[in-house]
Amino acid sequence: MTDQTTPDDLAPSPAFSAHANGTADLYAQADADFEGFWARQARERLTWAKDFDQTLDWSNAPFAKWFVGGQLNVAYNCVDRHVEAGNGDRVAIHFEAEGGDDFGSRALTYADLQREVSQAANTLESLGVTAGDRVAIYLPMIPEAIVAMLACARIGAPHSLVFGGFSSEALKARIEDAAAKVVITADGQYRRGKALPLKPAVDQALNGVESVEHVLVVRRTGGEVAWNERDLWWHETVETAADTHTPQPMDAEHPLFILYTSGTTGRPKGILHTTGGYLLQSAYTNSIVHDLHPETDVYWCTADIGWVTGHSYIVYGPLANGATQVVYEGTPDTPHNGRWWEIVEKYKVTILYTAPTAIRTCMKWGHEIPEKYDLSSIRVLGSVGEPINPEAWRWYREYIGAGTAPVVDTWWQTETGAIMISPLPGVTTLEPGSAQRPIPGVSAEILDDEGTPTHDPESVGYLVLTKPWPSMLRTVWGDDDRYRETYWSRFGPKYYFAGDGAKYDEKGNIWILGRVDDVMNVSGHRLSTAEIESALVLHDRVAEAAVVGATDETTGQAVVAFVILRQGASHEGDDNTAIVEELRAHVAKEIGPIAKPRTIMVVPELPKTRSGKIMRRLLRDLAEGREVGDATTLADSSVMNVIQAGLGN
Ligand code: PRX
To answer: Which residues pair with 512 in a beta bridge?
Structure first.
């Protein structure tokens, strides 16, 4: 591997630029006429049942309305119109089962998708689901998940996906908050070669929940499942339903989905996205950033459908563009560490979009593994979810992209709905490790502590977005105040505060430095310190808990918890191994295995300010094995000595 890439290598090749969707003139067009630019994109990229009268209504800021008066159907845009255009035979989804062909790998064309989505839409309607009703979806990475989402979109029932790795408690909280009417799940899921149950978590979650009338169950693993009166098999309902369905146009601002994400409090926020603007920006960015050419590319985004990346870059963006894509059910190491590269070779994947944590894991496994496969089809690589360190960036390009494929580092959030800051692969001279600049139509600044924009290289500030954008969240479900307070008050009402620290370099590239609030990013999964602390103190042996994200070589950050046990819970000479394991399992049960602390340290006290606020900075020093920083604002300055003595430091 060459350690140093010359600047020339980082400029787009003329051959690539000649065919790139994203062109330099887009920046100038968007700067010259912001609303006109988005209006043109909306009319060119989407099929409207009724044209809009107004591009943006920002009069009630921060509550935006985009494409006012326009009507469209998302499922029609993602499926039917491609069939009508004569592309019904094009493969929409190459589904690769974790266990391979014997476990149900199959290809779905756009015509297949149209039939299946129509069947699912008819079924939901027959269950009494109408526009505006919420449907919770708790499914593994199988085609039915995509079909279910599109069926909801088709009838205007906002979906709320819950990642299959979340526990029944987490699922329950989300079902209750959205008052879902139907839940769609599966009997089980394949994970690392094993069939694991899924439905029991739904049964448990629904205990005492009034709103849910039916549970629609996909048979995936074929295991025994307990059955309730409200349960229906997918294969007995959806697969026998009529396979035609007329999509009804929805208002451009009709709710499309709710997706829960962690914030700075214990309660997850339901991020609300709506129809026209969201679909437009996910399709636009998939076209100009991933450079998707639907006639020739085979696209693969490795995210799970339960996260926003799966929503925007497996379902809505690529399907609106008529893409052919790979959807893989399993993990990168099942049944061997070359599984991903085997899939790239099998389907001749041309565009790969994944997360830095996965790249770092592959680096650890060694480049000899991808080198065994033919990856020559790859022409664009993307990264999302957390900062990508330059070393991982270079490895990705060298060993997966043959040293030549452009790597686009894309910054965005559940709240932004679609990519906001990223190079354009046919335009931008790349800078390994940097997301570089806002895409055409998006505007960002970095503010100092006083809220003044700073352009000084290397001066660290707060990342803000300075103009509304089509795929922006519209509110926090059921909590407009929380929406305003969380995103538009710190530097508001003019600026959307993203929660990330950032800086410019000498060349004017933006470097995202990670969260400045109490949100952690573990393997690209967003977790809140408060949520894990609340889970820990629910345990009857825990008196107090503080959680920090500590830097971790592979996962970016790792969850490290400091707990004070209740009196009598710990004994002299007890090394606490048993209670630590019990608490880790307890967090997995309350939230999900992704939230399990890597390390739990039992301490006699926690460092607090006089006002009682936990000084996480000091705990982070401890968790990362650094010398503890300035502790003078502690209420009791001897606390850190007591903790360190207890930890044997
Ligand atoms: O801290 C940023 C980080 O992930 C956060 C958003 O997390 P989530 O809503 O779960 O969405 C993840 C997928 C879009 C951001 O506030 N983040 C995301 N992408 C990048 C990133 N940090 C640095 N570079 C990125 N490319």
So the answer is: 502
**CATH architecture for the domain at 443-519:** Roll (2.30)
CA 469 to ligand 1 centroid distance, Å? 17
CA–CA gap between residue 11 and residue 13 (Å, rounded): 6
pLDDT at 223: 83
Q: Which atom of ligand 1 is found nearest the CA of 515?
A: 1
pLDDT one-digit tens code per residue, 529-568: 988 998 998 999 998 899 999 999 889 999 999 999 988 7
> Above 80 in pLDDT, residue 505?
yes
Neighbours of 535 (CB within 10 A): 26
**Ligand 1 closest atom vs CA 498:** 16
Range in 307-316, 492-501, 571-580 the model is least confident about: 571-580
Q: Long-range CB contacts (< 8 A, 24+ apart) of 15-18?
A: 16/379, 16/406, 16/425, 16/426, 17/426, 17/427
Which value, in Å, is the radius of gyration of the alpha carbons in the chain?
24
pLDDT digits (tens, 9 = 90+) for 2-17: 445 555 589 999 999 9
pLDDT of 103 higher than 90: yes
- Give SS3 for 559: strand
Q: Is residue 48 within 8 Å of 71, Cβ to Cβ?
A: yes
Residue 555 Cα to ligand 1 middle (Å): 13
> How many CB atoms sit inside 10 A of residue 54's CB?
14
The CA 520 to ligand 1 mean position distance, Å, reads 10
Q: Report the separation in Å between the CA atom of 502 and the middle of ligand 1, taken as the mean of its atom positions.
A: 12
The answer to whether the beta carbons of residues 434 and 389 sit under 8 Å apart is no
**CA gap 49, 76 in Å, rounded:** 10
Over range 391-407, report the average pLDDT.
97
Q: Tell me: the pLDDT tens digits for 480-494?
A: 999 999 999 999 789
DSSP 327-359: EE-S-TTSSSTTHHHHHHHHHT--EEEE-HHHH
Per-residue confidence (pLDDT) for residue 649, from 0 to 100: 54
pLDDT of residue 66: 98
Residue 234: pLDDT over 70: yes
The pTM (predicted TM-score) of the whole model is: 0.93
Q: Strand 444-447 and strand 407-410: pairing?
A: unpaired
Distance 51 CA to ligand 1 centre (A): 33
**Which of 166, 412, 434, 497 has most ligand 1 atoms within 8 Å of CB, for mutation?**
412
Residue 44 CB partners (closer than 8 Å, separation 6+): none
Spatial distance between the Cα atoms of 10 and 405, rounded to a whole number of angstroms: 10
Residues with C-beta less than 6 Å from any ligand 1 atom: 261, 308-309, 384-387, 409-414, 435, 498-500, 512, 514-515, 521, 526
Average pLDDT rounded to a whole number, residues 588-608 = 92
Residues of the chain with CATH 2.30.38.10: 443-519
Fold of 523-647: GMP Synthetase; Chain A, domain 3 (3.30.300)
Rounded distance from Cα 443 to ligand 1 centre (Å): 17
Query: In the chain, where does the domain assigned CATH 3.30.300.30 lie?
Result: 523-647
pLDDT of residue 265: 75
Positive or negative, the CA dihedral 34, 35, 37, 41 is positive
